[in-house]
Each structure stands twice: as structure tokens, then as C-alpha cells.
Amino acid sequence: MDVLWMIPLLLIPLLMWTSSTFVFYFKKCFYVAWMMCLALITIPLCILKSGGRDVENMRIIRFMVRHVKYFLGLRFEVSGWEQLQTEGPYVIISNHQSSLDVLGLMEILPDRCTMIAKKELIYAGTVGLICWLGGIVFINRKKTSDAKSVMAEAAKTMLEEKIRLWVFPEGTRNQRGDLLPFKKGAFHLAVQAQVPIIPVVFSSYSSFYLRKEKQFKSGTIRLKILPKIETKGMTSDDISSLSDKSYNVMRSAFLDISESVTQSNGPLRH
């Protein structure tokens, strides 16, 4: 009987060595399970510190999550740290490739910064609860009128409570090797609050992570924090040009750092 229990323990390292598909599912399942466990531990800490929902809880969440990258064999190289020294509220925008983006986000998350996320996330068990405790702003992407009212309220909260908000303007996960067209919500938010936008670009994950091909190896992610884009004096008439400007500078940076990181990591076999 004792021998039977040892068989799975022996099989796991064998499969990790011989099957890239097994590695993919093992890492994905571990990532989800470990994040839920971390959330379970962090929930009482946040309640004890702040008494409930508070953006200051993001400090605890950030501390608890930062080690996860090591378990997955990931490394971050960050440039442009000085851009986050901007005082007061601002909007951070970044490209969105997978749930792994959370690790990069926590790597550079400034103080008094939380996120805007899809409403469905709040139902993700302990992770959903810790997101709520961290002050994450939830929007219903299916109802434009609801999303607009939430953004208007978020702009007011940014100024009153001096917080920063992180938004993924593509609106959905994208691993196609380029950026999707930006939705306008983040830019309406920045213009309504008259606060700067700070673009952040994640290099492509395609050199170590391919969801459809079930590939997930160790790798390096480059994070580039770009100079802020001012919105003072802008109105709703400037939203499209602001969005286009942000898209162009981010796409240029994305293609540049993705090429260099692919050379560093080496391409995955499809």
C-alpha cells in the first residue's frame, strides 16, 4: 500500500521532465490553487489592518503575491521606474495577455493604486473577496451605461481619495502578438479626473507561454514604464486622439521589447 502512494510522487517529476503539456496544466493548476490559498490567508490580514474594503489593503496583497513568480520560473526586468514617482492620482494603462499579468502588476504596483476589473471576478471565490477588499472597481462590460456611470464615480473617487487606477484598455486577454484596439473607458476616466496617464507595456509571453499549444516554460518578462501623458485641459473631444496616441506609443514599445525578450528566452516550439 505504501508503494502505491509513492507511484504518483514518482510520476510527477517524470512527467514534468518529459511532457510539456503536463507542465502546462500543472503550472496553471498550481497558480490558480496557490493564489486562492494566498487570498484565504490574506483576507483576515486585510480585515485586521483596515476593517474592510480599503485601497491600502493592496500593500498586503502586493507583498503576499510577489514570490509567486519564482514558483513558475518567471523573472521580471523593469525599466522606467522613475515614471511612477509622479505625485497624486493617475491612470495606469497596460496591455493584457493572461492572468499572469497580475504578477507583473504586483511587481511594480505603486502605493494607493488599485484596478478596474470585470464584474465576474468578484465571484471567483477567495480571490474575488480579496479583490473586493483591495478596493478593486468592478464594471459590467456588457452594459455600457453601467460601465460609464462606474467610470464617472471612479474619477470622482480618484480625486477625493487620492488614489491611482490600473486599467487594461484592450478590454480582454490577447495573445496574438500585437495589441488589440483600445476601448475608450480609461481615457474618459483620465480626462474626467484631469489626471495623467502612465502607459505600462508587458513584453510578449509567446517565448515561454502559449495557451493554445499548451506550452509553459520558464522565461523573462520585460516591463517598460513609459513617460506620462498629460490630460489637463482636455475634453471629451480629445478622447479619440488621446487613445490613438497611447496606443501608438505602447504598440511601438511592445514590438521593441518583445523582439529583444524573444531573442533572450528563445522561441517556443509550436
Biggest pleated-sheet summary: 7 strands, mixed
End-to-end separation = 41 Å
Based on CA atoms alone, the radius of gyration comes out at: 20 Å
**Can you tell me the overall shape?**
globular
What class do helices, strands and sheet pairing give?
alpha/beta
| Mean pLDDT level | 90
Count the strands? 9
So how many helices?
Answer: 9
**Major β-sheet strand ordering:** 1-9-6-2-5-3-4
Strand content: 5-15%
Please write the string of helix (H) and strand (E) elements: HHHHEEHEHEHEHEEEEH
Description:
The protein is built from nine helices and nine strands. It is α/β, with parallel strands linked by helices. Helix content is 49%, strand content 15%. It is globular and about 70 Å long.
Secondary-structure topology with pairs:
Blueprint: H1 2-18, H2 20-50, H3 57-65, H4 68-72, E1 74-79, E2 91-94, H5 101-108, E3 113-118, H6 125-133, E4 137-139, H7 144-161, E5 164-167, H8 185-193, E6 197-202, E7 209-210, E8 215-216, E9 219-225, H9 239-265
Parallel strand pairs: 1-9, 2-5, 2-6, 3-4, 3-5
Antiparallel strand pairs: 6-9, 7-8
Main attributes?
single chain, 270 residues, seven-stranded mixed beta sheet, two-stranded antiparallel sheet, 9 helices, 49% helix
Compose a concise summary of this entry.
This protein is of the alpha/beta class. The chain is built from 9 helices and 9 strands.
